[in-house]
Amino acid sequence: MWPSPRSPRASRSRSRASATSTSAVTDWTLDTLSRAIAARKISPVEATQACLARIAQLDAHVRAFITVDAEGALASARALQAELAQGRSRGPLHGVPLAYKDLCHVPGLPTSCGTMTREYFASTIECTAVARLREAGAVTLGKLNMTELAMGPFGDNAHHGDVQNPWKAGHCAGGSSSGSAAAVAAGFALGALGSDTGGSIRLPAACCGVVGLKPTYGRVSRAGAMPLSWSLDHLGPLTRTVADAARLMAIIAGYDAHDATSSRRGVPFYEGMLDGPVGGLRLGVPENYYFDGVTPEIDAGVRLAARTLEGLGALIIPLRVPDPRPMADVCNVISRSESAAIHARLARERPHELQPAVRARIEVGFHISAHDYLQALRLRARLTREFIADVFAEVDAIVAPAIPEPDGRPLALQIVGRPFDEATVLRLGHAYQQSTTWHLVAPTLQGG
Question: What residues act catalytically?
Answer without folding.
Answer: 101, 176, 200
